DNA sequence: CTTGACTCTATAGTAACTATAGAGTTTAAA
DNA sequence: TTTAAACTCTATAGTTACTATAGAGTCAAG
């Protein structure tokens, strides 16, 4: 099948598919006489795998590693486990950061209300006042 | 003062300062005879303001808006409030997304343990098995 | 044959930095 | 005065994961 069909089957844009090829995530083993890329069912599966990993926020580099590991069926899968653990930790860390940020933003937001001028704005004052304290 | 001194005072890299100038967040009103940028205390304050906003994950575009608003002391500050509300909502949304992702990753992680081969790896199988179900 | 849809490669853009190259300026020490 | 190191400048490119566009080629149906 050609790239447009693959794109439809996998709900992935033609441009992204070409990008993944450039990034060595998906390869095109065949071309038509007119130089069109030709894909088989294995490519469909690989692209769906890639998309699933992207949905998990795994980076292209990590996905590349998983694809490499997948090519050694007899090898130990502890690398997969380790990658997943690291990834979970990273997500957890990011959650904590965002929770803190949200609280900070809420505090800041409460320092201002309607019917004020820029000059009286508690938010801007805090952002500016903090500077003086920092110095 | 010159750019290096400003960088030290604000804990901001020389390159980032130049980048902010290019992005219209900070302007250099003076240059030395040798074409070196010259900054005053107002620039220090403005850069600290920018950094504080960046720490709140506000985009450069949003910060640009705030700086513009700051230049109209008599105007209403409801735009500031609205921006903050929108930003808080975006952070909240992202937190929810990440919490869901973390749960999904944990479920996936539990499908595998040590001492398995790639072929037996529950994580990879799930990522690959899901494809078949999708079809 | 014509035309519209599809495909190709190349290039540039997004956001917020970050690094490097090569050239010019400044400053302090010899 | 000279020298050398530190600092500064502009231009360009890179990071990540896409996304868009231009101009040219291919294909299939009318």
Automatic annotation (TrEMBL), chains A, B:
Protein name from the UniProt record: Cd(II)/Pb(II)-responsive transcriptional regulator
Stored SUPFAM superfamilies: Putative DNA-binding domain
Species name: Thalassolituus marinus
Upper lineage: Bacteria, Pseudomonadati, Pseudomonadota, Gammaproteobacteria, Oceanospirillales
Start and end residues of each HTH merR-type domain: 1-69
Superkingdom in the source lineage: Bacteria
The keyword Repressor is assigned to this record: no
UniProt entry keywords in alphabetical sequence: DNA-binding, Transcription, Transcription regulation
